Every structure is written in C-alpha cells, then in structure tokens.
Batch of 2 targets.
Target 1
Amino acid sequence: MCKRWGGSYRLSASPLCAFAWPRTGYQDVGEKKYKRMTRALKPDLEHYAQQKAKLGDLVYPTADSVAHADLVPLEQSRVEKLAELQRQQDAARLNRHKRKRYDPNAEVDYINAPNAIFNEKISKAFDAYTREIKANLERGTAL
C-alpha cells in the first residue's frame, strides 16, 4: 500500500500502489503476464541437454556461429503446445472485449448514433406495446 510519509509517497510491496513512481500499472500487468506465460511453457532440461550434446552450437547459436535455425529439428508436440497457448490468449482477448457487433440485417430506425441508443432504450421499455402498431404501419393498414 502507498503510505504518505514525510511529505512524499513511499512505495511498499503491495500491488495497490501501481500508480507510484517508477513503475506504472502497465509495467506490472506486463510483468505478471510474462511470468504467467513462462510458467505455462516449462522447459524440458533433459531434452535440451540431449540436443546440446548432439548438435552443439546449433541449439542456441552465438553471434560467431554460422548455422541456420532450420537445421535444428522441432518437435511437433511443442509447436502444437505453443499454438494452443496462442489460441487460448486470442480467445481470452475476444472474451474480454465484448463489443456490440454491427448487424447489417437489423432494421434501421435511427438517424445517428445517439438516436440509435435512445431507440434501443425506448424499445426495451415499450416494444411489447408498439409491435402491433409498427406492423400495421409497415403493411399500410394503420388507422
């Protein structure tokens, strides 16, 4: 928690103090996401040691190595796991941003965006009473 002490704010270890300098809330969120993602992708150290013994510098080339990354064989299961994690992130992103979708087949009964919002509010309250009147107006049989 941030505590006012001696005329300035003192930063403590609480996540409630995300606004205090030098860290911002976005930095904390990014760091949490990075840690969560790296926990999900646990390395297989035995497999890494086997590859390093067999391939040498090809596993993690340095600036002086001339090898290409295409020479390192990839396990399809690891690629599928990474792809599945990416799909999960995309699905979570879509669920987080629930925007109203534009329906091209919907009836247009507004002249601008504020009028559309007003009409939606009115229709929630009075649609049950005005449905028959609207149908008669469209057919041309209104009184």
Target 2
Amino acid sequence: MPVLTLIGRALYRVNARRFLIPWLFFAAFLICGSTPAAGAVKVGFAERDISPDAGMERPGGYGKGRHQAVHDPCKARVAVFDDGVDRVALVGLDVPFIWRDAVQAIRSAVEERCGIPAGNILIGASHTHSGGPMGMIQPGQFDHAEPLVQKLAYEMSSAADPIYLQRVIDRTIEAIVEADSRRAEAFCGFGSGSEGAAVFNRRHRMKNGLTFTHPGRGNSEMLDYAGPIDPEVGVIGVWSREGQLVGCIVNFACHATTAPNVQARQSAPITFTTSRRRSAECSARSCRSCSSTAHRAM
C-alpha cells in the first residue's frame, strides 16, 4: 500500500493519536517526498547529557523535592533529516516540560549557527517526573506579585533553576548542530507496533457512578477504566548505505510519572529503558549508534 495512503488513514484515527501524525508526515516526506533532483536523504544523530546536579530541585510534584542520587543520565537526543532541499531536526529532551521561551532560544540559535530554519525544529519533552528543574515556576515569573504569592511560588512550589535552564538550552543547541554536521547518506523507513500492557488510564469509573483519578490499586469500588490508552508505538528507522541501523526514533504515549526505586533519584525512565534495549540489540547487530525519543501524550 502506498505510504501516502497510510498517512491519509492515520489522519482519521481517534484524537488520542494525533501526536503521532507529525512524525508520520516527516517520515512520508523523507521517504516519498524527495524528487530526483533532491539527491539522497542524509541523516545525522547526536546527544548531550542534560542531567541535573545533586541537590537541584526535582519537579513533578506540587511541592519541592531534591535530587540526591543518579539512576541514569537525562539527555537531549537529536536526529536531523535532509532530503537535499529541506532539513528537519527532531529533538527529544529528558525533561518534564519545556517553555516557549526556551524553545524559541534554541531554534533561533540553531538557525543562526547551521541554517536549519527555526520552523523546522521540533522539540518535545518526555515529561519525566525525575528530571531537572525546568519549572513549574519560571525565574521572575511572579516578581510583580504580592509577597505572599511570591513566597508560595518561589519558596513552596517547584521552581526552575536558571543555571539548569541555560544548560539545557546550550547543550540542546550543541546536539542539534552536531547532528547536522554528522549527516550522512541513509535509507529511512517507518512503521508502528502495539504495546497495550505498559501503561493504563488512571481514571476509573466507580460503583457510586463517579469517576476517580488514582482510586488506589485493588480498590473494590472500581468498575472499569474511564477512558482509553494509545497503544501505538511509532518508529522511524535509519540505515546506512551499508545496511547498518544507524539510529531510530520511537514515539509512545506515556505519562512518565514513575521514578526508579526512590523519588530522590534522577532518571529518564521510558527513554532510558527504550534506549538501553535498542542499544543492546544494535550492539548485537554491530550497529553504530542508537537514539530514542519519547513524547508525552496523556
């Protein structure tokens, strides 16, 4: 079946899967959209460590928490695609979220340094609850407010660290520029699978007719899940001209609220696990590198 036909069908899927459509369009554009004059597709991968320091805040809750140990590094992972006409950068960050100002700073700097148009840079956060202090409260966000509001915001809420914010911006820029410089001729393909056991909908219908979020494991008053999950796993694969798997991009709907062993450890739970599994398989096949990104959809 033609790839563009598959893309068309994807557009009519339920709204819960709308996050996957941009990835499919990127893949279809790269695989099917090139003209003979455009030449071969080129792809480059790169990554940078964006782990927070010990003692930095750990966002993801309503109050303040601190990182005390490291389970696995948080990273900025980048893939740059070039069809000979346009270049596109896909960026996955092991952070809980990223604000517009940071996105715009990264896009502007990359466009200036290597020419990738700002509008061609897609940046997404994995929404790990064990990442670095990107917020919730931003530096200076409530400087205009009354003292009580400032105290609630800056002293009692999860707040961004300006040093860490700049670290993420700088290292993401570096990773994109490096990935762009490492572009090499490659073959691209994409597909999807299904994983319905790794996640669950946390809203439940109860016997009393109400819907509760997190009613408690094994609660005898639960009837059923109150909504669906999205089990689709979208994958873009990149192979060298010699047939080696150079890297892959994985897109899966997961609200990554889990933390390794203890809440005080930093981690990129789903991207770390996915990357480790992919890297192990790639090593067994003598692959050169592997990159994985995961984006929140719930």
